[in-house]
Amino acid sequence: MSWVFLRDLLSGVNKYSTGIGRIWVAVVFMFRLLVYVAAAENIWKHEHGEFECNIKQPGCENVCFDHFFPVSHIRLWALQLIMVSTPSLLVVFHVAYRENREKHHNQKLYKNPGKIDGGLLCTYLISLILKTGLEIVFLVLFYKLYNGFTIPRLMQCDIKPCPNTVDCYISKPTEKMIFLYFLVATSCLCIVLNLSELSYLIFKYSTKCYLKRHVKKQQ
Description:
By secondary structure, the protein is mainly alpha-helical. It has helices spanning about 5-15, 20-45, 60-70, 75-85, 90-105, 120-145, 175-219, and strands at about 50-55, 155, 165-170. The protein has one domain: de novo design (two linked rop proteins) (Up-down Bundle), CATH 1.20.1440. It has a three-stranded antiparallel β-sheet with strand order 1-3-2, covered by helices on one side. Strand 2 and strand 3 (about 165-170) form a beta hairpin. It is elongated.
């Protein structure tokens, strides 16, 4: 899978972000995207082939694997990375709209098309809310699908066509659990950063509006 588009998207958004937003981009790019591509993807690459049960009943192993792993960890992480980065496109599109509007009218309509104010501020806040919501949704989804953030060494399966309760084993459970905790922790960090940036922008522009009204009353 090529991640060039996502990398370019994050680089483009970085130009219009606040300081906290740039930290978020760095965390997503360095601690999530690079770790995913460089290490995590290889660890789960052959998860089905390395899943073993102590029985050779045809179909039993496949059914047990599907029961314990209804969706692949690695594919769900890839989807999560794409989905939480997509709302940033709203900001890029809004800036592009401002620039195109200036070209169409052939005059300077904004002091800086990339400055977070007015309509762009609303778009930026919406993107932060969407990113935070998607992060939480995926964490809950992970927890529900896999019964917690753990990788058990042994799983017992009694689903048909298995003739009785069989023991199934996952390869490299400790290594997988370390990466699972790391990726969950970085996801939680991104939620904290998004909420911090959201609070910062609301406080900043609320204070700005209050001061403007105060000055008008004084005049």
